[in-house]
Design a protein that fits this description.
The chain is mainly beta and 742 residues long. The longest helix is centred in the middle third of the chain and has 14 residues. Helix content is 12%, strand content 31%. It is built from 11 helices and 44 strands.
């Protein structure tokens, strides 16, 4: 069977810029590539016919197939340096917090390689600390417990052959019967590494014929868990000297003996590993392990790592981390000067296999081609990239009341688990996934399959095409960098079906735009919900810390609520004084996936301020139809809440009703888990269509429902949802200002 996959190296391009496409094709001699512009989703019955337009370009061609491998697993590496050469006697030590100690032999630190050369600390197959010197191994014989801190140290005297290994649990106010262990042995094996790279959380396993995530180096034995305060000395130290090296500063008297005195509390927001010894054996981490996590000495006295980094001097490595597949490009595409702004993709096909590598074409920076812009939710798309949990979690089918469906592209996640997962999943050690990258094959950025996020936003693109008014596509990534300047040229900006993840820069830009008279059409539900951070060195990587509250697939460990990339507090914007109701008039109230409902017009729909909205729309019931579960109101829904920031002059012109009892209040609305929590009992659970004016002639329209977009194409857009929304778009695109009510 043929399998094909790939990704684009850029997410947003201006005319004249070039995107490179990385592809891997297995089971065929060649594959076909086409650059396409996507105009609608492949949504089946009731929706528009699927449309993609091929762009005329030399990039459309047949290419020779080749397999490109992904290399998952995070680790740290110090490159070959003179100070590492000729090591004979040594001491290795670190604090470790293993999360899968019995998963098999795993590396902690050292130069040891799978070929049998070098030296290093590790965990053996039974979960016990172990020292390896060439072919020699010595283990403590006592398995370490999961998620408990230990001091692990080993010394080797080359002259006598004496080896000592310590494994000591760290006091943590819990009740465990463990005791310190020290074992001894004699080693005769030669290390024979001649100054090889020094690794943390992995072993070298060879050289690849093409680039991997770090040069051409292959790695194995990836450690799951945390490493804190690793040290390397050039002699066999005694126990007292080992204890001295556990301090945060290099102790006096050992300066000449210490080769590496690494401080993981330094440079937490970066990829750097800092050595405080005179040798400056600095290195880097690969595949973005979790930093800003509690270390062996965290007391709970400080929750913000930026205030006391020394309590956050650990790095949490995972054997399934991946931040950049580092594939080689197969071909490139330069955006023509006259290209229309839009959703684009490189469509790869071979035999029956296909894969889409999406990117977006925006206007040249500082210009606009229309009065209307659609903001593609590229941050949210990235956070959801490769959401495997929707297939593996037991509750998914219970939520939806139906069997989960998978296509051939979805199945690739299970055939190639090294492509990584989303922040809605957990790592193999059950810790939550806090970062996601788009520099890898992503199975759920495609116009087919589950109608969610990227695919669902194509309903809005389809409707914009039907309306026929010129529009531009811009992206979250553009907004984060350019701020309000990106939005300023437009009379109206539309946000998508589920713009859930926002950085501070993005939110401030939208707020400024609205306050300066910009019009905003919020076309979805559960938007403006989680705070995110972009990687300071690579915007393709996004972090989310799911702190305190909210509807979440996992919760951050106590003390780990601040982003490693920026030091900003993570979690819900609502918890930080920026509830969605402030920006849009509505905020997340419930979710349900069994069926979608409809809206009923309210008395406020008769207000003259919204007469334009209902021009030609006479129905009292709105959206009792739709591609998404049969209605316009559902999946994830938002309601007005004046206590949380809905403007006092906002009009709720329609509210949904008749939701099932699977729609339950979101977690942040529940203080005591008792009482009327579901939609059958609680009228608060509803989607509200709202409207309000803003200063300087602006206005905001909100649908409050993810399913809303799926009702637009019904009956060829000849329906009350499409008519109402088109009325809003046309009025919002006008230069004529709105007046604030008196």
């Amino acid at each position: 069977m043929t399998r094909i996959m790939g990704y684009a190296d850029r997410v947003s391009l201006q005319p004249g810029e070039t995107v490179r496409i990385m592809a891997s094709c297995i089971g065929a001699k060649s594959y076909r590539a086409e650059i396409v512009r996507l105009l609608s989703p492949n949504a089946g019955m009731g929706a528009s016919e699927y449309r993609e337009v091929t762009v005329e370009t030399p990039a459309n061609a047949t290419y020779p197939a080749r397999e490109q491998k992904m290399h998952a697993g995070s680790f740290g590496v110090v490159p070959e340096k003179w100070a590492l050469k000729g090591v004979e006697s040594f001491t290795l030590q670190a604090y470790v917090w293993p999360t899968t100690p019995k998963k098999g032999p795993r590396a902690i630190m050292g130069t040891w390689a799978a070929s049998g050369s070098g030296y290093g600390l590790s965990i053996d197959a039974e979960g016990a600390a172990e020292i390896r010197i060439g072919a020699f191994k010595l283990a403590s014989g006592v398995p370490m417990l999961e998620r408990r801190w230990y001091l692990v140290a080993a010394s080797f005297d080359a002259k006598s052959g004496q080896v000592r290994l310590w494994q000591e649990p760290i006091y943590d106010k819990s009740f465990h019967a463990e005791r310190p262990v020290m074992v001894e042995g004699k080693a005769r094996a030669s290390m024979a590494d001649a100054g090889a790279p020094f690794l943390f959380a992995a072993w070298r396993s060879g050289e690849a014929p093409s680039p991997t995530v770090y040069g051409n180096m292959l790695t194995t034995g990836h450690f799951n868990g945390r490493i804190d305060r690793p040290r390397l000395a050039r002699k066999a130290l005694d126990r007292a000297q080992i204890q001295a090296l556990t301090a945060g500063m290099l102790p006096s008297g050992l300066e000449e003996e210490v080769l590496g005195f690494w401080d993981f509390a330094k440079d937490i927001s970066s990829q750097r590993i800092t050595d405080l010894s005179p040798n400056r054996l600095d290195g880097e981490v690969v595949n973005v392990p979790a930093r800003a996590v509690t270390g062996h000495n965290w007391t709970g006295s400080e929750m913000n790592w930026t205030k006391d980094p020394q309590q956050y001097g650990a790095i949490h490595f995972h054997d399934d981390d991946i931040s950049d597949a580092k594939w080689q490009p197969d071909f490139s595409f330069t955006v023509p000067k006259d290209a229309k702004s839009g959703f684009y993709a490189a469509k790869l096909t071979s035999d029956e296999a296909y894969f889409y590598c999406p990117f977006f074409v925006r206007p040249t920076r500082g210009t606009a081609n229309a009065k209307i812009a659609f903001l593609a939710s590229t941050a949210t798309y990235t956070v959801y990239a490769n959401n495997r949990g929707r297939f593996t979690k037991m509750l998914t089918e219970l939520y939806q009341g139906r069997i989960s469906m998978m296509d051939a592209v979805d199945i690739l996640q299970f055939e190639f688990p090294e492509m990584g997962v989303s922040t809605y999943d957990r790592h193999t050690d059950s810790s939550g996934v806090s970062t996601s990258s788009r520099l890898r094959p992503v199975t759920n950025w495609k116009p087919h399959g589950r109608l969610w996020n990227y695919c669902c936003d194509l309903f809005i693109v389809d409707w914009l095409e039907h309306v026929g008014m010129p529009y531009d596509i811009i992206t979250d990534h553009d907004l984060h960098v350019e701020g309000q300047d990106l939005l300023r040229p437009y009379n109206v900006v539309l946000t998508g079906s589920h713009p859930e993840y926002w950085s501070l820069e993005m939110l401030d830009a939208l707020d400024g735009y609205q306050r300066q008279g910009g019009r905003h059409m919020y076309m979805g539900g559960n938007g403006f919900y989680w705070r995110i951070a972009f990687h300071p060195e690579n915007m393709n990587i996004i972090e989310v810390r799911r702190s305190e509250d909210g509807v979440r697939a996992w919760d951050a460990r106590v003390g780990e609520y601040y982003h490693q990339f920026t030091g900003e507090y993570g979690g819900l914007w609502r918890r930080q004084g920026r509830a969605p109701q402030v920006a849009t008039g509505v905020g997340f109230i419930s979710q349900g996936f069994d069926a979608c409902s409809y809206y009923r017009r309210t008395a406020q729909a008769k207000d003259p301020r919204v007469a334009f909205m209902f021009d030609g729309v006479t129905d009292e019931i709105l959206g009792n139809f739709g591609v998404l579960q049969g209605g316009a109101a559902g999946l994830e829904i938002d309601c007005a809440d004046f206590a949380l920031g809905t403007p006092p002059h906002a009009l709720v012109v329609a509210s949904s009703e008749n939701h099932s009892n699977t729609y339950i209040l979101v977690a942040e609305e529940i203080n005591i888990g008792h009482g009327a929590l579901d939609a059958v009992q609680n009228a608060q659970i509803r989607a509200d269509i709202t409207f309000f004016e803003t200063p300087n002639g602006g206005a905001v329209f909100s649908t409050g429902s993810i399913a809303y977009a799926g009702s637009l194409p019904i009956d060829g857009f000849n329906n009350n949802i499409a008519k109402l929304t088109t009325n809003v778009l046309k009025r919002f695109a006008e230069d004529r200002p709105f007046a604030m009510p008196r």
